[in-house]
Request: fold
Amino acid sequence: MIRVAIVGATGMVGRMFLKVLEEKKPNVDEYVLFASSRSAGSTVHFMNKDYIVEELTENSFDSGFTYALFSAGGETSLKFAPIAASKGCTVIDNSSAWRMEKDVPLVVPEVNPGDLAIHKNIIANPNCSTIQAVVALKPLHDKYKIKRIVYSTYQAVSGAGQQGYMDLEDGIKGVPPKKFPYPIFGNCLPHIDKFLDNGYTKEEMKMINETHKILHDDTIKITATTVRVPVFYGHSESINVEFYNDFDLDTLKKDLANFPGIIVKDDIENNIYPMPIDAAGTDEVYVGRIRRDFSVDYGVNLWVVADNIRKGAASNAVQIMEKLIEKE
Amino acid sequence: MIRVAIVGATGMVGRMFLKVLEEKKPNVDEYVLFASSRSAGSTVHFMNKDYIVEELTENSFDSGFTYALFSAGGETSLKFAPIAASKGCTVIDNSSAWRMEKDVPLVVPEVNPGDLAIHKNIIANPNCSTIQAVVALKPLHDKYKIKRIVYSTYQAVSGAGQQGYMDLEDGIKGVPPKKFPYPIFGNCLPHIDKFLDNGYTKEEMKMINETHKILHDDTIKITATTVRVPVFYGHSESINVEFYNDFDLDTLKKDLANFPGIIVKDDIENNIYPMPIDAAGTDEVYVGRIRRDFSVDYGVNLWVVADNIRKGAASNAVQIMEKLIEKE
Reply:
């Protein structure tokens, strides 16, 4: 009997967990929905049933869960994931709290499913911007070996949760933002997550560090600039890649198209390229504007788009759980 | 007596010519406003006077003009700039038609004013995205010598003219776009200007070629990805730069701050960084997020923002005219 806890069930990603689970219908016998005391007690319609959201407490995992999908912020994960793990529940955590821990696999199922083999009941879901990037980069790294990456991102407001979304919607009417430090409507903010002493944001360092960990290659040189743009759903990324080895551009496009989880949208004669409004609501990673970078010996420019709440968070976590269920 | 023709006076950039001229009050004795037959006959209030916009014809320059500020599209420039030039009028052209011609200086007054010394009565105003980039790059190239640039842009809809602007405004209400091939509200379009056979857009190639021409250095390796974002005014650019020579980061920030036309906004502890909503309505180029790129020996990441209709078009053209007037 497989019992699954949804922790943070009323948040932006939590609600998407429920939607994706309804769509994918993994082989689960029972779900229990948890949230903080603030949201506990509310009713959520899920799988044709009304669920009362329970308050997350230190005893929540005593009843025995197989898996827990966490998306309730780093502090909740730091406190409750070890409790769940100690009671035999495998936590798939969407926060950044555990991602860089040595014993915690950081997994994108299309990219490094083998990393699920050994874990201590905590598995981390990578950062949204990283997930879509590594899906696109994995087949290219395997074949041409990546030397250096320059990331510039165009990230949707939903990545900052419900209030981020509302800040854009309210901003249209001139309402000042509550989540972002400045208006996001009609603006770009080169600022996602906290600033660090080295001048980078945490978001930028996540992209650098998590790419290394997921691709199992710390020798890849990476830099990143992450930017919030007035888009509701769907992160876009301008990715400049330099390889050690030469490539044929048409073959490289096929390498991408043949990789699971990627849809190549690259027919510029017919104005076909990835856009966030098309990616929204889907689980694929869209790659386009694929063209040789003439400024280095072996380089390529990519434009990579995916739904940040689905593939960038909820769908990836559910896919991890499905992989684990397969292996049971 | 200095007589100035404004060609395309009713367009997005044309109207900004008038606004900037009213602000800067260059030493001009008389203005005549021209537009296509479609807009001719309309009345424009300018310099406390009502001007009747005249239709641009092959005889328009017979009355003798010292300067003409053109912003009426490439075809109009190709046809009428040589006519004006042949009659002794110095044309400052905002279209891309003449920029890469050998005898046509391509000028950003802070960067390469010396190029104004020799011309054949046609001077080109660079592409909006290029202008702000080269202002930021010039002091760094002079001091540390640039090896390679990776541009990723976040460009405002006003760069596509009045209908581009309206597409964003109307898009909020769900009205389909007229200028752009897809909705721009809540979206990003990795597509500015036409696609070329090499997979790049004309906008991307403009950034590459014009940077070479303005900085007088074709050896700089450059690649670019240009993207339209739902911002009304103000282009933003993520610029990754690799140098031949090492630098001290604090000194480099001062190099930028000391360069004319640049305002460094880079105080991350207080969330101070450039944003399009702040740059809009001003003539400066704002540089922030200045940080060492650890993925190369000597590299830096910059976030560069400027008003694309002012510094990126009208103000730069008027500044060119002011330089020419100074020299008379």
About this structure: Chain A has two domains: 3-125+313-327, 129-308.
